[in-house]
Design goal:
- Helices cover about 50% and strands about 0% of the residues.
- It contains 7 helices and no strands.
- The protein is globular.
- The relative contact order is 0.15.
C-alpha cells in the first residue's frame, strides 16, 4: 500500500463518519487524521485536502453521479459506496494532476477492501461514465469518447426503481450495487471522540 493510498483510506473513513454524524467537529476530524497517519505532515495535508475538496464540491459531485447512475438514486446506494464514488469523482474531475486511471483504480481498491466485489464493479461503471461529464456544466457530453474503464469489465445501465439489476461482467449488461450488507471502513463505524477509536469493521483485514 502506498502512502497516498493510506491517505485516501483515511479520507474515506472521515467522509463516511461525517455523513453518519454531521455534527463532527473539525478539531475531531483533524485529530483523527493526524492519529491515523502518525502525524506525517504531507500525508495529513493530502488527506485533509481530499476531505475538503469532496465536501466543498459535494453538491456538484452528487449531481453528476446521479446523472450517470440513471435509475439508481444516490440515497439508495450503500453509504460506503456513495462516499467511494464521491472521492473517486473528485480526484478524477477536480484534480487534473491525478491521471484518470489512477483515480479509478484507487477507488476500485477502496471498494474491494471496504465493500463487495459487486460494488467494485458498480463503482467502476459509474466512474467510467463520469469521464464524459464536464464538472463545470450539466450532463455528459454526447460527443465525448472517454478512455475505457480501468478494469474494462462493466458499465452502468438503467435499473428498475424497486430492485437492483443483476450484476454482469459483460460491458453490455447492466450493473448495480449489491443489496447485501456492506462492510463499513475499519475504524469508522461511528464518529471518534477526542480519545477513543472507532471499532474495526467486521471482516476487515
Amino acid at each position: 500500500m502506498t502512502q497516498r493510498t493510506r491517505g485516501r483510506e483515511i479520507a474515506l473513513q472521515i467522509l463516511y463518519q461525517i455523513e453518519q454524524n454531521a455534527g463532527m467537529a473539525p478539531v475531531e476530524v483533524r485529530r483523527f487524521v493526524e492519529r491515523r497517519l502518525l502525524g506525517d505532515r504531507k500525508l495529513v495535508e493530502f488527506s485533509e485536502g481530499l476531505i475538503a475538496g469532496v465536501r466543498s464540491n459535494q453538491a456538484r459531485i452528487d449531481e453528476m453521479i446521479s446523472e450517470v447512475a440513471e435509475n439508481w438514486r444516490l440515497d439508495r446506494m450503500a453509504a460506503i459506496d456513495r462516499n467511494i464514488l464521491r472521492l473517486g469523482a473528485f480526484e478524477m474531475l477536480f484534480c487534473p494532476e491525478v491521471p484518470t486511471k489512477v483515480a479509478i483504480n484507487e477507488a476500485l481498491e477502496l471498494a474491494k477492501r471496504y465493500s463487495t466485489a459487486q460494488s467494485s464493479r458498480f463503482v467502476n461503471g459509474i466512474l467510467d461514465r463520469l469521464q464524459a461529464v464536464d464538472p463545470s456544466g450539466p450532463g455528459p457530453s454526447p460527443a465525448a469518447t472517454p478512455d475505457g474503464p480501468a478494469t474494462a469489465e462493466a458499465t452502468v445501465a438503467p435499473a428498475p426503481a424497486d430492485k437492483p439489476t443483476p450484476l454482469s461482467v459483460k460491458s453490455s449488461r447492466a450493473i448495480a450495487p449489491s443489496e447485501e450488507p456492506t462492510r463499513v471502513p475499519e475504524e469508522a463505524s461511528e464518529a471518534p471522540g477526542p480519545t477513543d477509536e472507532p471499532p474495526p469493521a467486521a471482516g476487515a483485514p
